[in-house]
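Continuing from the previous page of notes. For each protein in this section, the sequence appears first, followed by its C-alpha cells. Read the first protein now.
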Amino acid sequence: MPDVPPYNDMLWVTLRVLISLGGSASIGELDQAVIAAAGWTEDQQQVLHDDGPKTELEYRLAWARSYLKLMGLATNSARGVWSVTDQGRATTEEQIPALRAEVVTEVRRNKRPRAESAASVRPLDDMAPITTTSPAGSLVGDDPDEDSGWKDSLLEGWQACAARCTVERMEYRKIADHTVSAIGLGGMPMSVSGRGDRQQSIDTIHAALTAGMTLIDTADAYCLDGSEFGHNEELIAEALHHWGGSAEEVLVATKGGHTRTEDGSWELNGRPDYLREACEASLRRLGVESIGLYQFHRPDPDVPIEESVGALGELLDAGKIRMAGVSNFNSAQIRSAHTVLGGRLASVQNQYSPKYRSSKTELDVCAELGVAFLPWSPLGGIAKASELGTAHNAFAEVAEEHGVSPQQVALAWELAAADVVVPIPGASRPESAVASAAASELLLTAEQIARLDAT
C-alpha cells in the first residue's frame, strides 16, 4: 500500500483546506482539495476510488470528513454525519450533541475566509505535525482497528488543529457600548404559525450561538395567540439555560408594546404603565435582573411617542434595562426618541431587505446618530425568504460569483450599508441559523454592491 501521511497531519490539512474553502465544500470538492494540498501521488489518490475494502488512507480520510461534517463544516448530508459503518464506528445521532460541545466551539466561532483555490493552502510538508498526549499516541493509533482512546484522542487532535489555525474571528459590531456579532438571530419564526417543535427550536438557538452569534432578538408578543404570551422569551431562556457556553456573552433583545388577543390578532399598547408591567413580565420570563436591550415594539397612535419612550428612560434609570431601543419608527420619531432619552437611544429595529428598502432613510438617520439599526425580516419575511434569488436576480448572480446563497448575499449587502447595521434574520432550523452567521464572512466588491443597490 502506498505511504500515507499520519492521521493527525491529515486532520490538520483537511481542517486547513475546509477553512480556506469557506466551510461550504462538498465531499468531492473537499477530497480533491485535500489531495492537492497534501501533494499526494496518483497511487495515493487511487486508493480513494478502489472498490475493495477500505485502505488505511481511505479510512483516515473518511474519519477526517466525518468530523468536518459532524461540525456542519461540510455539506452533503441532512444531519452532517458520515458513517463509517464497515469499520464498526458509525457516528450515531446520539453522539452528536456531546461531540459538538467539545469540538465545535474551537472552530465554528472563528471566521473562515474563502480562498481563491486549494492552491492557496500551505502544502502539508510546510506544516509541523500535530502530536497528542493521549494514551493512543496518535489520533487512531498505528492500527486502524485499535479502539483504545480513539474518541478522546480524536477530540484532542481537533482542538489542537483549531488552536493552530490562524483565522479571523466573526465580525462584530456595536449596540451602544455593547459588542455583538455582526449578525444576530431572530427568534420570531420559532414561536409563530409554522414553527417547529420545541427541541428543534432549542437546537436552532444553540447552533446560532455555536456559530458565533451573540445577539438574539425576541419579543413578548412572539406567540400564536394571547394564551401563550411570552412563548419566545421563555423558549430563549430555556435554550440559554441548557447551552454549554457562557450565556453572559449573549445579548438578548426583547420588545414590549404589542399585545395579542385570544384569536391571534395583534394590538398595541404604548401606555407607560403597561410598558413598565410588560418589562417586569419579560424580566421574569427571561430569568434576569436586568434586560440587555428593551425596545418599544411599535408606536401606539393613542399615546404620544414621548410618553412611551419616556417609560423606557425610567426603566433605564431604575436599572431594569441596560439599553433602550425602538422599533418601526420613522425618521422624525427616531430623532424624538433620541432626544427624550437624552442621547441614550441604543437601537432602531425596522423592516429592511432587498424587497423592502423604504427604511433606508431611517438607516441613514441611525448612522448619523450612531444608533444601531437592526433590520427585521432582512431576507424578505418568513414566507418569502426562500424566493429571494428568484425575485431579485442580481442577488442570485452575485451569489453564484461567490459560491454562496442569495440570502447570504442579502445579509452581506445590508452589512455593507453602514457600520451600524446588525441584521437579525429569523430561523427555525439549525442549518438556517448557521448559514446566516456565515454571511458575516462575505465581502462584496464595490461593483457588486452598486449592482445590488441598483436593482
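Done with the first. The second protein uses the same format. Note its length before scrolling.
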Amino acid sequence: MEPMMFDWQSLALVGGWLLWSLLLSGLLSVATVYQPELKRWPRLFAALPVLSVVPFLPWPGVPALLPALGVDHQVELMLAAMPAVVLSPTGTAGGWLDGLWLSLPWVLPAVYLIGLGALLLRRVRQYSLWLQFCRLRRPYPVATLTPLLHSDATLAALWQAAGQPVTFVQPLQGSPFVAGVKCAGVGQTQLYLPDWFSQLPLLKQQLLLRHELFHLKAHHPLKLLLWQLFADITWFNPVMRYWAHQYQQACELWVDRQVLQQQPKARSYGEILLWISQLRQPPVAGLTLAAIGAVTGSSGGSSGYRQLQSRLAALQQPRVLSVRRRLAWLLLLLAVTLPVAALQTGVAGSAPAQWLHPVPTSVVSSPFGVLSLDKRVAQLRGQRPHGGIDFVAPRGSPVRAIADGRVLVADDKTLKSSLGQTVVMAHGGGYQSLFAHLDRIDVKAGQWVSAGTIIGTLGASGNTTGAHLHLELVRDNQKLDPASLLPLQ
C-alpha cells in the first residue's frame, strides 16, 4: 500500500489562514484607533471569522471539464511484469528521517485532538460547576420584581421581548447574569439576580435589569456560547479566541448604548459599572454572558480594568456608526479580503512553471494522435486519433500530479463509466489534465494539489485490457500532446 503522503497544501492553507486572521486582526486594531465606534458593533466581530475563512474555501469558478474525453486501451502485455519503484515521500530508501516524515500526518492530527480534548475536559468541568450552581439557586421573589416592571412601561415591554425570563437568586452573590435562549416559543431564558439587587435604589434596579434584559433580547448568551465552541474547535488559532473576547465586549458596549437610549441616566449607570466591576464573577459565567462590569471567567485584573475604561469612555461619548459608515467599512474589509481569495482561487492564472512525469517508472505504450490498428480499440475511440498518452506500469504504481492545481473530479461516476476511476485537475493558464483507469484515488474534489503529489495508483478500472494510465491534457478546451510539455524519456 502506498505510504500516506504529508499534505503540504493543507498545511499551507492552515498557515495562510493563521497569518491572514492575524493580519486582519491587526488591521482592525488600527481601524478602531481612528474609529472607536467599531468596538461597539458586535456584528462586525461576528463577520470577522467568515472574512478570515472565505479566501481559503474551495470556491468554484474553475474552467469547464475536459471535452470529448477519449478512451484508450492499447497495452503491451510484455511490459506488465516491469518492477515498480515506489519512492517514499522524501525520495529516499527509508531510514529514521523517512519514518519521522511519514509520521507527520499522524502527529499533527493527534496534537490537534489532544488540544481539543483538553478544552473539552475544561467544558465538562464548567458544566459540572453549572449543575452544582443550579442545585444552589432558588426562585427570586416575584413580588419584588412586579412593582419594578409596573413602574416603567418600556421596561415591562422589554421583559416581554426577552421571553419573560425565569428569575433566580444568584447564590454566589456575584454580579447578575443571564442564560438560556427562547426562540419561536421554544426554550427558556433565565435571569440570575443577587440578594443585594433589591437593596439598590429604584433607578439603579431599572438600569441593571434593563441591561440584562437587552442581553436576553439579543440572544447574547447563545451567541457567546457558539463563539466559545468555535474558539475551542479552532484552538490552534489564538486570534479566534481574541475575537470572541472582543465580540463579548462589543455586546456589552452595544447593550450600554441601548440602556441609555431608553433611560438616559449615564451617571447612575456609570456608578453601577464601577461598583459591580469590584465583584467576583462566578465560574459558571464562562458558559453564559458575563454581566456588566465583569469579565467572563475573571475577577478583574488589567483586562477587566481596560474594559471598564472603554465602557466608561463610551458613556461619555455615546456616538454610533451610521449605516453609511458601516457599509463603507464592510466594503473596505471585502476589498482587502478579495485579493487574498484571488490568490487561493486563481486556477486560471499563469501557466505552471514546471511539468512532471505522472509515472516516472512507466513506459509509453500509445502516444498522442495515433490511429490504432486494433479494431476493438479503434471502435472504442470512435475511429478517432488517440486523444492522450497511455503509460504502462505495474498495477498499484503511484500516479502523481503533473503540475500544481485543483482537483475537479475524483470518482468513477462524473465522467464516462468506461474511464473508470478518474481524476481531473485544473491548472493555471487554462490547462487541465485527466488521469483515467486508476486503481485507487487519493484526492478529493476541490482539493489543492502540488506538482508531484500522489493522486492515486495506476490500475485497470473501466474498459481496459490491462493496467495502464490514460493521460489527457487540454488548454482552453483544445487537446494537446502531453509529450510537448512533460519530461518524457
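What the second structure shows: Confidence is low (pLDDT under 50) at residues 1-6, 60-95, 285-302. Residues 70 and 378 are 11 Å apart (CA to CA). We return to this in next week's lecture.
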